[in-house]
Specification:
The protein is an alpha+beta fold. The chain contains seven helices and 17 strands. An eight-stranded mixed sheet has the order 4-3-5-6-7-8-9-10, with helices on both faces. Strands 12-11-13-17-15 form a five-stranded mixed sheet, sandwiched between helices. A two-stranded antiparallel ribbon has the order 1-2. The longest helix is centred in the N-terminal third of the chain and has 23 residues, at about 25-50. The radius of gyration is 19 Å and the shape is globular. The structure holds 2,5-anhydro-1,6-di-O-phosphono-D-mannitol (AHM) and magnesium ion. It catalyses: beta-D-fructose 1,6-bisphosphate + H2O = beta-D-fructose 6-phosphate + phosphate. Its cofactor is Mg(2+). Pathway: Carbohydrate biosynthesis.
């Protein structure tokens, strides 16, 4: 077995990368290092599963009223412990907790995360992941308030995910393209495997939970029906479908080989804009996708432009290859 000692490791990357021509601030390097080290630990825990009693429900609910798995709670606690002593961090917010947690109180950065995305896949040994987003606190000296987090996706200074699959792989953007690292499980280091990740504009692959078809709005139904019609239909090509039910794994596929991912509004809960969370899932994934040359919308607006009004707000999500996202926006117009 050849271990990739020639790859740039994450520490070297942080020390040498110059997104938009500027070195990464030391405080941001510290915070990213803390997040990434925690994900390395989490990858190890996830891989142990039943061997250390980590599978199954915790018997509790989160702020969204969803049943929590044991690993949801473990991941949340690990991430808080892993970053709480980081001096550049002012506070954090998690999909699993109702309120933000102040940390140092006077740091520059705010961290948001979905500690373990794709919870329904934990017990069946299918890829899951951690999604994170970093914002710059507008008034570093002022006491932390929930409203500090309510910034549009355009304010993100970094975002990424770590997918715990056959390999543990991270995608990261600092606002100047997307890079990917894979964890060397022997040394515990994340090693650079791809820079300048790009999403092809054109694709023949879509991802959506088809079991909800009868509940969708007309534009999404029309789009999917046209994909299903194949070469004889309006799109004049045969489409393939994939649905992993872990956003992090579905988006990883889109970043790796193109495609369009959708979790749209549906009429079962007409007053809810969608299932996925703007701050913990949609914004960081939209930042990555835009930085890789793709696009991301709620059907009408670009997700990155949405002004959040609630930490836990939900949003309809359509993201990936630009041609498909543009077509879906056109159908919604
Ligand atoms: P989670 O954060 O509680 O795991 O929920 C989000 C997940 C996404 O990862 C995925 O795209 C979606 O829920 C799957 O939903 P469904 O089971 O309706 O297909
Ligand atoms: Mg999630």
């Amino acid at each position: 077995m050849v271990l990739s000692s020639t790859h740039t490791n994450f520490k070297q990357y942080l020390a040498t990368a110059k997104p938009k021509g500027v070195a990464i601030p030391a405080g941001l390097q510290d915070l990213l290092t803390a997040v990434v080290n925690t994900c390395s630990t989490l990858s190890h825990e996830v891989a142990q599963g039943a061997l250390i009693g980590l599978l199954g429900s915790a018997g509790t609910g989160n702020v969204q009223g969803e049943v929590q798995q044991k690993l949801d709670i473990i991941a949340n606690d690990l991430l808080i412990d892993g970053v709480k002593n980081c001096k550049s961090l002012a506070g954090l917010a998690s999909e699993e907790m109702e309120l933000p947690v102040p940390v140092q109180g006077t740091g520059d950065y705010l961290l948001l995360f979905d500690p373990l995305d794709g919870s329904s896949n934990i017990d069946v040994n299918v890829s899951i992941g951690t999604i994170f987003s970093i914002l710059k606190k507008q008034e570093p000296q002022a006491p932390l308030q929930t409203s500090d987090f309510l910034l549009s996706g355009r304010h993100q200074v970094a975002a990424g995910y770590v997918v715990y699959g056959p390999q543990t792989t991270m995608a990261l953007t600092l606002g100047d393209g997307v890079v990917m690292f894979t964890l060397n499980k022997v040394t515990g280091e994340f090693l650079l495997i791809k820079d300048a990740v790009t999403i092809a504009h054109s694709t023949k692959e879509f991802a959506i939970n088809m079991s909800n078809m009868r509940h969708w709005a007309d534009p999404v139904r029309r789009y999917v029906e046209e994909c299903l019609a194949g070469v004889g239909g309006a799109r004049e090509k045969d489409f393939n479908m994939r649905w992993i039910a872990s956003m992090v794994a579905d988006v990883h596929r889109v970043l790796s080989r193109g495609g369009v991912f959708m979790y749209p509004w549906d009429k079962r809960e007409p007053n809810k804009p969608g299932k996925l969370r703007l701050m913990y899932e949609a914004n960081p994934m939209s930042f990555l996708v835009e930085q890789a040359g793709g696009a991301s919308t709620n059907g009408k607006d670009l997700i990155m432009d949405l002004q959040p009004t609630d930490l836990h707000e939900r949003v309809s999500v359509i993201l990936g290859s630009k041609e498909e996202v543009d077509l879906l926006r056109h159908y919604h117009a």
